[in-house]
Amino acid sequence: MNTDPCQIQLTPDGKLKHFLTTEGLSKELLTEILDTADSFISTQERDVKKVPLLRGKTVVNLFFENSTRTRSTFELAAKRLSADILNLDISKSATAKGETLMDTLWNLEAMYSDMFVVRHADSGAAHFIASQVTPNVAIINAGDGRHAHPTQAMLDMLTIRRHKGQIEGKVVAIVGDILHSRVARSQIHALKTLGAAEVRVVGPATLLPRDIEALGAKAYYDFNLALRDCDVIIMLRLQKERMQNALLPSESEFYKLYGLSTEKLALAKPDAIVMHPGPINRGVEIESAVADGPQSVILNQVSNGIAVRMAVMAMAMSGQQSMQQQAQQDSQEEDPV
Amino acid sequence: MKYLHIRNARLLDPQQGLDDVLDLYVAEGQIRAIGQKPAGGTIEETLDAQGQWLLPGLVDLSTYLNEPGYLQKGSIQTETRAAASAGFSHVCAQPLTKPVADSPAVIQLIQEKAATAGYARVLPLGALTQGLDGDQLANMVSLRNAGCRALSNARQPVKDSYVLRRLMEYAATYDILLFLSADDRALSASGVMHEGPTATRLGLAGIPETAETIALAQLLLLIEQTGVRAHISQISCARSLEMLADARARGLRVTADVALANLVFTAREVSGFDSRFHVQPPLRGEKDRQALLTAVNRGELAICSNHQPHEISAKKAPFADAAAGMSMYDCFMPLLLELVRKGELHLPAAISALCHQPAAVLGLEHGLVQGHRFSATLIDPQAVGGKILSRGSNLPLDHSELAGRVEATFVDGRMVYRRQPG
């Protein structure tokens, strides 16, 4: 368990073998993910959308927490790579019967799967699973607690790059509930590595985690100030529970202070784009006219999501295979019978 | 009279101003002489302790023996043996057992099992509230009469300040000593580690310092009001030390301790979601660690092991789901002496924090003094490679390279632990 969460996802020669977090990955590797995803976008526009990269492989969607949207984009991505896919909704089955996470994992390993796509409510769950399963299973983090949601962050990077040409030099504001957001954390790491000029996190002190600036982001309480010179505005979803937990007085007061209205949007650069990981609360984080307006790229994010997930699945599987080949070669050299 | 003769050991007892290579003679459980052999009698056994240190036995103000009820984690037999192998002659066992140690029957059971095991002496802490529920007062006087030197709620929350006030008043009526921990559950409830940059980076819910300091302020004010004899268990924050110093300056007689883990590690250890470092109270920042070390060096803070052994599966889970606690006995002495070697902890202060201060809190006769009961530990400060004796698998690190090994431990003149060669 004493493995660095960033290093555990890489093969000895620096290729991706799991995808757990954007933190600690090099600019080259993140760019490779984006380039690979770009190439898949063109295959998605064809009549026959399947490519055979994961043919014969079994991917298990291991969702300990419900998420129809993320799960279906992973399912679609796996199918377009020609993998066999098994959807396990663990939130309703095994753990509810008292089975521990370790028991569940041992059972799944016995099914000879090649890849687990993991969504779990605990921070560090994907990292934990990666450190416990047999070495040949690739783990893709589909969201762990408040820690990371790296595929969502990378699809956002892809969206920014496709609309703005590059991420280098851009000013990006991430707005709303940063405290509970795994997406925000993964975005901050990716944006910093890819050379964004400034990453601003915007919200009241109750929703900004302590020492967030240690991650390289700049904290803003004033949305108007934070919007100045912004190239990209990322609005986060606000959960209703936050109102019951003494974090916010009301949705209406939050909207007044941090909701993205047409007037607020005018404070950013004229060509600024508006993003949201979804699902949107219209009138809570964002005005409908902005969400559906010309600067919104929210729907593009969804289609880019499939390409990014295809990219990391293909790359992690290839990293696993090169490691297995290396291991086979090594054992042949040691044992020349 | 038949003597046990320990020769060539460096006798270390800062309370007595003792730091010298001297002979020591024990008979009938007592130290009969330091230096010259008393007239008459014969030497039954001689221990040559060349290059070793002889300290008063360490007294642990907090340990979890897990019996009755949690034998998969440890038993009185395994954990008191591990304690003796770490140099502890006396250990205060937290009442977190199943059933909870809230009745004389459970206390008696623990005492009997401990006596049968015959390793470190167990001083059971009675539960402060029934079933540790934090609400209904336990039968404090019965527990005291059953042999509990102090009562504790084993870091479980007390319902509110009303219950806290009443249980202190009741304890004060009968001069019962309380071990209290400072933890405001409303602030710490969902937290699993120190609130700071590491928690933010990992997305783990944080425990702010105020969870400790607010609760400590409440404890200190109520201790002052009720006049109860109280000891604060496992302080973790620098700010708490200032508050304790203020309280003492106003004349309040309150003592406190820190778990060794908080002197050795900081929250940064959690960086890789390492569940071994999931502990209560949480490991804090470097400033806190430095302030705690300073307080120990000044003689203001005792050290406890807060030993909490767990089975492998209890820690094999994502960080938040993994059980809190660290198995300390098997690495206690090397970790302690490493702090001394690095100059972070002064040896006399460390001995005081582990021997005299806890003995004074509990009212135990202690120290390398002629006429005192002989409870002591013999340490080889250079040797490496102690055995793993605790049932707990949750050691914080591989200590096999760190020097500092207990060779023998004595309780009331009897050698209860002697390292087996090999």
Automatic annotation (TrEMBL), chain A:
UniProt catalytic activity: carbamoyl phosphate + L-aspartate = N-carbamoyl-L-aspartate + phosphate + H(+)
Pfam families membership: OTCace (PF00185), OTCace_N (PF02729)
EC numbers for this chain: 2.1.3.2
Function: Catalyzes the condensation of carbamoyl phosphate and aspartate to form carbamoyl aspartate and inorganic phosphate, the committed step in the de novo pyrimidine nucleotide biosynthesis pathway.
Upper lineage: Bacteria, Pseudomonadati, Pseudomonadota, Gammaproteobacteria, Oceanospirillales
Aspartate/ornithine carbamoyltransferase Asp/Orn-binding domain location: 169-315
Subunit structure: Heterododecamer (2C3:3R2) of six catalytic PyrB chains organized as two trimers (C3), and six regulatory PyrI chains organized as three dimers (R2).
Pathway involvement of the protein, from the record: Pyrimidine metabolism; UMP biosynthesis via de novo pathway; (S)-dihydroorotate from bicarbonate: step 2/3
Binding site for L-aspartate: 97, 182, 237
Keywords, in A-Z order: Pyrimidine biosynthesis, Transferase
Family from the record: Belongs to the aspartate/ornithine carbamoyltransferase superfamily. ATCase family.
Record-annotated membrane-spanning stretches: none
EC class (word): transferase
Binding site for carbamoyl phosphate: 69-70, 119, 149, 152, 278-279
Gene: pyrB
MF terms in GO: amino acid binding; aspartate carbamoyltransferase activity
UniProt key word Ubl conjugation: no
Domain Aspartate/ornithine carbamoyltransferase carbamoyl-P binding as annotated: residue spans: 17-161
Protein name: Aspartate carbamoyltransferase
Biological process per Gene Ontology, one example term: 'de novo' UMP biosynthetic process
Automatic annotation (TrEMBL), chain B:
Coiled coil listed as a keyword: no
UniProt superkingdom: Bacteria
Domain Dihydroorotase catalytic intervals: 51-237
InterPro entries per the UniProt record, alphabetical: DHOase, DHOase/Allantoinase_Hydrolase, DHOase_cat, Metal-dep_hydrolase_composite, Metal_Hydrolase
One GO term describing the cellular component: cytoplasm
GO function term, MF aspect, one: allantoinase activity
Any GO BP: pyrimidine nucleotide biosynthetic process
PANTHER family: ALLANTOINASE (PTHR43668)
Name of the protein: Dihydroorotase
Record-linked CDD domains: DHOase_IIa
Keywords from the named record: Pyrimidine biosynthesis
